[in-house]
Structures are given as C-alpha cells and as structure tokens.
Write a structure and sequence with these properties.
Number of helices of chain A: 13
Low-confidence stretches of chain A: 1-14
CATH class of the largest domain in chain A: Alpha Beta
Largest interface: A-B, 32 and 32 residues
Distance between the termini of chain A: 42 Å
Mean pLDDT of chain A: 96
CATH architecture of the largest domain in chain A: 3-Layer(aba) Sandwich
CATH superfamily of the largest domain in chain A: Zn peptidases
Number of domains of chain A: 2
Strand order of the largest sheet of chain A: 1-10-12-11-13-16-14-15
Structural class of chain A: alpha/beta
Strand content of chain A: 25-35%
Helix content of chain A: 25-40%
Oligomer: homodimer
CATH topology of the largest domain in chain A: Aminopeptidase
Order of helices and strands of chain A: HHHHEEEEEHEHHEEHEEEHEHEEHHEEH
Radius of gyration of chain A: 23 Å
Number of strands of chain A: 16
C-alpha cells in the first residue's frame, strides 16, 4: 500500500517544482508514506541497543550508521576520529534504607550517575541529610559533613516546556557531588530528573571538582525520593546503604560519523544536520538520541529518493559523546575551523522523537528572522514556533564560526518519562511523530539550501 | 510535593484576579500540579473498564461519575433518562483463511463491527472479492454476489490531521455491509481504521439498510488486511471462514449524567462541557472517551478548588451512547429545547486525551471570531489553532438552539492506534497531555463565562 501511494505521489514530481510549498509537501508526503526513519531507529535500538561512549555498542553504532549512509549512496561517508572518555557502570547499583522504624529494610530504585567513582564492594553506610537542590545544600553547610546528602529538588510541573523545568532542577545532578564533597559529605543521592512520580531512576552526567574527593553519586526514582523524604520526616537517624561500581577508564578512540551530498552550485557552503550517536548505558537510547541520528540521515536519504540535487553541501552528522564529554561536537567544530569550512547552518535533533512544533535557534538577528520568515511553510504541518531560543549541545561549539544553529523543537510533555532511563526504548517512540520531525528537518534543510540565509 | 507547590500557588490568589492571563495561568498551574483528571480516568478504566451502552459497566460508569461529581460538591448532580440500544458481541469473533496454497489455514485478527448480526455457531464460508472502499464496491457490482466482500481502503497516511484520513476511509465501515448486501454479498470484511500496520483490529459503528439482509461485518487488522490482499493476488479461489455472535437486544434505560454549578449573575445562560460515557466493548475506553468525561468534570472541580463562582451556569455532561446511536446527545438537546434552556456554548472533548493544540468550532461568524480573539490567552500553553471547523457528535444536536459548539482539538498522530480497540487503555494516556486538555477546556469555559459571546 505504502509503495503504491508513494509512486502515485512521485510520478508527477520527478521534475523539481518551482513552488516551495509543493516541494515541502512532497517531502512530508514521502516521509509519511514511505519513510525509513522508524525502521532504521528500530535497528539501532533493537539490534545494537544502548551505546555509551567507548563501548563496543558505540563502535557498532558507528559502523551501522556508516554502512547505512553508504547503502543510500551519499557522495561521501567518512569517520572523524575523536578520543572519548570510557565510563563503565559495572555491577548493579544498590541503595537501601537499613533501619526504618516503619518499614525495616527498604530497597530503593537507583542508578549511579555517569562519570562517578563507585563505592566498590562493601558499599558505604551513612545518615542522610535531605536538602532541596543546590540552594538547600548551600544552606545546610556543615550539617552535611560525614553524611549522605539527599538532593531532593523536584522539577516544576507548571512549566509547559519541560526542558525549562529540567534546567531548573538539573544543577543538583550535575554539581551536587562536587558541591557536597566540598562540604565534607561522603556521598550524594539525587532525585531523578523526572516530572512524573514513578519507579524509574534517571542517570545523567555529573562533574567532580578535581580539588575534592570523588564521592559516589546515585539517582533514585521520584517515587523512592518521596518515600525517603517521608521516612526522614519521622526518623532522623535513618541509615542508608549504597553500593556502586562506576569507574572511569582510559580514553578510547571513537568517531563522529559523517555522510555528505555535495552541493552542485555552492559546494563550499555546508548545512549540517544530525544528532548524537552515543547514549547512556541503560534502555536503548531511542529518544536520546537515536531519533535525532536517524532523522539526520533521513534528510539526505529523502534528497536521494526524490532525486534532488542540493545547491549547497548537505552533511548528516552523528556526533559522538554528547552525554558525558561533548568530545564529538567539540572535535567537529575544531576540524571545521582548521579546514576553513563554511557552515551556513547546523541543525540538531536532540529533544526526542516527539511531535515537532517548531525550531529553536541561535544566530544573528538576520539569520533568525530569515528562519522565522519561513513559518508559513511549516504551519500546514502544525509546526508553528520558529522563534524559540536554543540550538543543540553538539552544534554549540560551531557558534563562533557563524552558522545559524537550529534545534528541532518537539513537544516536551513526555520526554522526561524516558530521558536517561531503561524506559527509553524503541517502543516509546511514535512512528508518525518521528517521521514528522524528519520531514520538518528536511523541509528546513531544503529552504536553507534553496534560499540561503542572506 | 504536589500539595506544597499547590498551596504556594494558591495562597496569593484566593481573590479572583482581574487579569485573564493570571486566572488562566492559575488554572493551568493548579491542574498540572494537583489535577484529579488522571486519577479519575484511572478509576473509570481500571475499576470499571469498557462500557458499551446498555451494559452493566455503563451503569457503573453512570453511578461512578454521579458520585464523583457529588463528592466535589457541585450544586446539582442528576441523571437524565434515555433509552439506548443494547448490542452484545457474544463469543469471540473468528476469521480464518482456509485454503491458502502458501500458508494453509491462517487465523486473522478480527472484531465484529458494532450493531452487526452474527453468523451464529457454524459460521459461514465464502470466496473473497477485494475492493478498495465503497467506490471499489460500486465498481465491482455483481461480481460480489454470493461472496464475502473485503473492503480494503487504507487511511491516507499523508494527512497530518488523521481525522481527515479517517473520514476519507470510514464510509466502508459504516455502510459497507449495507451496500454489499444490496449487491447480494453474504458478508463483509473491512480493513481496520488505523494508520499503522499492526495486528490490532478496530471495531466501530455500522448501519444496516432495513430493506436488505443484515449480513455479518467484521474488521480485520491492517496487518492481516495486507496479508489477505497479498494472498488474493496469487489465489482467486481463496476461501475464508468467519464466525461471529453479535446480536441487538431490546433497548435499555440508561442516563446522561449531569453536574452543575449554578451561575451567580446569569444562571439561565448555560455552558455545557463534557464527553461521552459509553465506549466500545473492548479495551477500557480511555481515549474514547473516558478522557473527555474526566476533563469535563475537572472543569467544574477546578472552579470549586479555586473557590471561583461562575457568572453563568456551568454544566458537566457525560453523554450516553455516542458510539452506536447518539441517543444521549439527541435526548439532551431535545430536553434542553423542551425546557427552553439557553446554552451559550457546548464544548466536547472526544478526540482523545492527547496534547491539545487548539479548538474546533461551529457557530455564527461572530461567535467563532470571538473564540479566535482569545488566541493569545492560549498560545503560552502551545494551544494555537482556534480556527479549526468542527465541534462534537454529542453536542451537534444542540446546533439549532444557537450555542457555539466547540471541540477540544488535540494532536491526532496517535489516536488511530487506539481508537475502538483493545489497546485503548489507561496506559495509552499521558498524564500531562490529559491535564493540559482539561486546563485548556477550563480556560475556555472561564473566558466564555466571564466574557460571553456578545
């Protein structure tokens, strides 16, 4: 059925239409009828799985996306070497309340944060001081000395853009261990970065302060955060056991994966589009960020399927190591500068494969106004917010080279159910939402290619 | 946590603000922090389950929503009697290919359509003629005599509003049996109304022509529709067995359930808001339409929680029998006319508990312009399409009484994965999406109440 529909659509359009509206409709129709994004994401999630930097699965993902782009006949497909950190979680993380008057011994759902040093076998026992986020930690001061700090700041549920709620709460995850170590704490527990009350712990990046001890840092689920908090209200001498085995190893050689279709008129002007290929070491990295990678590849594949030759050079990029180092994004920008490349725009999808409602961007007023002037091309597809500030982590390092930086901006209601968890699996991605995102990115690349940003 | 946040929000706002923006923010903040919609929907889905008109579960749903609204202290809660059809599926539906050269005997995933008469024990065997929708059936003409007609028209995947794709394909489900019977067919199989290829059959309403035989009509999953179609390409003498046990019984007394908060200034002007309480007899009727019912109740509950007294009368309505008769909506309008009631607006949520992106409406130009003039109050919540034509099935019969008819307009990408299937369960509903819809409806009721439509 899909094939029949597609050929019906394609036949009268093998010649490039003069109308942007028609070409963009062709992009959306083709993707919604016969897109490859969903099946490619299935392969990445189900046949490879999660792929933290430096892991064998990350290497498999490099090889898979390289072969995939080669199979689509892009003009060039190549690997860009980059050294990445290799953090390994090791054995199962464990957090246990030992002496609750009410409940006795209670196991909590936990995941060590990325880049942490584990307790090792034997674990660690301590009393717990609960604080609300980093401000609460600061206020607690010396009280946390020798204790386990429980950073229990919730995400604000009233923010419709849940990334704002994440930004408001994630400091305690990123710097909680470093700040608590300064104050002499022996470990930290962090409330998971979720806007739901459920039993799923969320891992994520944290950065130690090299001048202080590398204390263990583990996330516990929001449900268990509520439980622990309520137990602490009644019992100040509550003791918690924690055990984790995280370890940072020697750096490893890995790669950004790059595919190109060379421009026919202005090959030196580059439009980069993609996502990050690494994920955390749980789940399948479906929304974060398999979706963005497969959408990026799909942009170029649609050009091939439609028989379109871009004026400018289109480049699909799978950046490596966004999650715990940003080495890929940093190296990509360094090499671009060294080679004197001219990126006119870089587009990243790293907010999940959800319903696209707009684009976020960073650039000059003129660049951003040009982007916003294209709004009417997108509203037929319910994509209408083209004035959101933002961009993407991996494209950020390109900023001083002057391109317009763009982030695909999907609705964010469901993202923090899955982000950095075992629940971020292929089944959590909706095919049509994913495809609409891929089509939106292709339409934007098409407009950038045809119109430029002058 | 939720309670703490809420009281922080509420304390400075116990006095009604003069600013619509602030009051609407209060509605959204309260719902997203401490809404009841999701938990109430869980009860309806998990403790009662699906509830086709005339079933014991439909009676339980009447009692539950009545008690729920009473527990919230609405001024009046009452039942409005209405006679409803009682269709019972009976034993498991069965569709089987008997003699495939390739596969031998193959069972297909099937559900009899609503209101059908079953084959009874022993079933029915026939050769199959595949046609594409009602046009294909017309073209086939006499070829279908004595055969099983297989109506295999797909939903158009390129339509971003999937309800349009549904409208384009659903005729074969609603009238396929009636039209095929005219041509002497002995049964119909219908491709499920889904825009996915999966193994889930979708039931739904169909109407016989009283002048022709009531032939059995069953939906098969899209995956099995593709399979059957491909088998038929190679083998014209394919035989299919089908067995179903549907039966229409005597009509049953049931009820619309109505809760009111009486207006303080213009009590005779009514704003009705709700959804339909009946569902099909599979799954849990979560999106269709438990979501709309619970959102409707939540509108009035939020007024109570916020301590707001409406100027006009607010009425939450759970209409009965939308799915296979529309008796509740029809009776509601008849009684309103008989009593000389004055509805200024009626709002229905019956497009699923998904992310709200706007409102559809039917009314005078002036009414619809007034609605659209409120757009800026909704865009902060990513609700931006206020010019969609539409409304709702249950409120349709009110049309000649002059109110503005409004439908909550959520994004529709995921709706037809669940619609009328065993997959329409509580877990398919996202809490925040559901709550945003409830808050959007409350904000609209608030504006209608404060501003009217003059």
């Amino acid at each position: 059925m899909k094939k029949i529909l597609l050929s019906l659509i394609l036949l009268p359009n093998l010649v490039w239409s003069q109308s942007h509206e028609e070409n963009i409709k062709l992009i959306f129709d083709t993707e919604l009828s016969n897109g490859h994004t969903y099946e490619n994401l299935r392969y990445l999630c189900k046949e490879i799985g999660n792929r933290i930097s430096g892991s064998p699965q990350a290497a498999a993902a490099v090889e898979y996306t390289k072969q995939l782009m080669e199979s689509y006949g892009f003009d060039t497909v190549y690997l860009q070497p980059v050294m990445v950190p290799k953090w390994v979680r090791g054995k199962k993380d464990e957090v246990k309340v030992l002496n609750s008057d009410k409940l006795g011994s209670v196991e909590l759902s936990a995941l060590a944060l990325g880049n942490t040093e584990g307790t090792g076998t034997g674990g660690l026992v301590g009393e717990v001081v609960e604080v609300k986020g980093l401000d609460g930690l600061k206020a607690a001061g010396d009280l946390v000395k020798g204790k386990i700090v429980f950073l229990n700041g919730p995400m604000d549920p009233t923010l419709v853009n849940t990334f704002q709620a994440y930004s408001g709460a994630v400091g305690q995850r990123g710097s909680g261990a470093a700040e608590a170590a300064k104050l002499g704490a022996k470990a930290v527990l962090v409330r998971s970065m979720s806007n739901r009350i459920d039993d799923i712990p969320h891992t994520g990046n944290q950065r130690y302060n090299p001048d202080y001890p590398k204390i263990p840092a583990l996330a516990i689920s929001t449900q268990d955060s509520e439980l622990l908090s309520s137990l602490l209200k009644d019992q100040k001498d509550l003791k918690v056991y924690l055990e984790s085995h995280g370890k940072m190893h020697e750096e490893v050689l890995s790669y950004n994966v790059i595919g190109e279709i060379r421009g026919s008129e202005r090959p030196d002007e580059i439009i980069a589009v993609g996502g990050h290929l690494d994920s955390w070491d749980v789940g399948e990295g479906a929304h974060d960020d398999g979706a963005g990678c497969m959408q990026g590849i799909e942009v170029l594949r649609l050009y091939r399927e439609l028989g379109w030759k871009p004026k400018r050079t289109l480049r699909a990029v799978m950046w490596m190591n966004e999650e715990n180092g940003l080495r890929g994004g940093t190296e990509y920008a360094r090499v671009a500068k060294e080679k004197g490349e001219n990126h006119i725009a870089a587009i990243e999808s790293d907010s999940g494969g959800f319903l696209p409602i707009g684009f976020s961007s960073t650039g000059t007023d003129k660049q951003r106004q040009k982007l916003q002037s294209w709004k009417s091309y997108f509203t037929p597809y319910n994509i209408w917010k083209l004035d959101v500030p933002g961009g993407g982590a991996d494209i950020g390092p390109l900023r001083d080279q002057g391109p317009l930086l763009v982030g695909l901006h999907p609705d964010s209601q469901r993202y923090f159910m899955y982000h950095h968890t075992a629940a971020d699996v292929f089944e959590a991605v909706d095919q049509r939402e994913l495809e609409l995102g891929a089509a939106a990115m292709t339409a934007l690349v098409y407009l950038l290619d045809r119109e430029g940003l002058e």
